[in-house]
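pasting input
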Amino acid sequence: MVGGRCSSTTAGEHGPASVADAAGSRLLARRPDVVWRNVHAGVLVRPRGGPPLRLSGTGPALWALLAKPSRLDVIAGMLAELHGAEASTVAADLTPVVASLVEREVLEWR
Amino acid sequence: MTPVEVLYAVLGRGLESRLDLPTEPLAPQAWAELASHTDGAHLWGDVADAVATGDLPATNEQAEQASAQHEQAMGTVLELEILALDVLDLLAQSGLDARLLKGMATAHLDHPDPNRRTFSDIDLLVEPGRFTATLDALAAHGWRRDLPERRPDFDDRFGKDGTLQRDHWGQVDLHRTLVMGAFGLWIDLDDLWSGSAAFVLGGREVHALDSPRRLLHSCYAAVLSDPQPRLALLRDIALLAHQAPDRIQEARELARGWHGESVLAEGLALTAQRLGLSGVPRVDPATLQERLALRSYRSHGGTNTALRLAGVLGVRGVTPRLAYLYALALPSPGYRVARRDAGRPSEWRRGARELGRLARRT
């Protein structure tokens, strides 16, 4: 989901469990200080304090859905519907990516 | 249809242009020429969009090149936006403000999608009377000018802009006024600053010129800044004039006070001619003073030296005019040394050559 101008993201120390813990009823949002552009291969994002990233795969859909802050389970449900997959599977796939994007100051929990 | 005409047609999309786009992908040679023009004019945003929407038929290879070039251009744009935000934050710490100019503003305020407007530098307009204060504030954070001030007080009284650099951070052009020469000096800087438009960039509210002033700036830059008008500016003019025709009247009223009606008219006419648009507004003929000033710009057969000398037309009062000419003729030793160290030619030698050529031509 995240690639191109940077190495792929990994969950790192913010593993699935910690993200799930962090999520709860909190809202996931784009960090307002990120600047970004749509490109053919996805979405280019440039956090204020870090290197640029290209969101690809389901990344652009995640980014589009986060135009309005949402709960992670809601986002996972919408992506699951979009891709005809199980919400739990999507949530499991999404968790490390979200952790990585939070760590890279692209997304934030509110 | 030449590749340049294809580019004009691409820029005229959505603007009721008379120009037609090709119905088949361009041949390799023609595409290569189009790509070269697109690259030089920073227009991959519009070309990639035309390809992606199918308005400009392209082979798979051409489409891939357009996407890759667009992504590269957008990467640059994002870096510039972050840098501009950093600079605005530094200025705010010193109680100073600046307006975003040109592509960084029009991308967000005038284009149907900011992805379509690319730009390659940062231009900021500083508050009237605070040019030196702004330079000093940034110098305190390691930003350095490419050349020192020509003479003490020259910048605050007669300067157009200053280019600042900071190590690997990049470059910023700080503008006191919009263009060099008489037309830049005729602009009422308080009037220029007084109309602004806000938008949010990177979570921060930033300010640009309001739309009539953006239209005027685009016309000034297209008509006066380069020997040939930059196509990205013509697209900006087309969008600004097309979206709200009343804006032309507002811009015209502002321009009247700045002796800039002929520049506005020429910018609109050039745009209409190149992009195949109709409805060019009529504007009264330029005054003798304006015609003389126009002829000093390289786009109208002038030279850098003629442009600087004709700048005196834009300075009011005998003493200020003498001070302006004195500064042109005798810049400070520090300025001359910095020019020489930067490998720039002697202004006297170049001036004599240019004036000699101009005299022979006349």
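fyi The CA atoms of residues 6 and 21 of chain B lie 6 Å apart.
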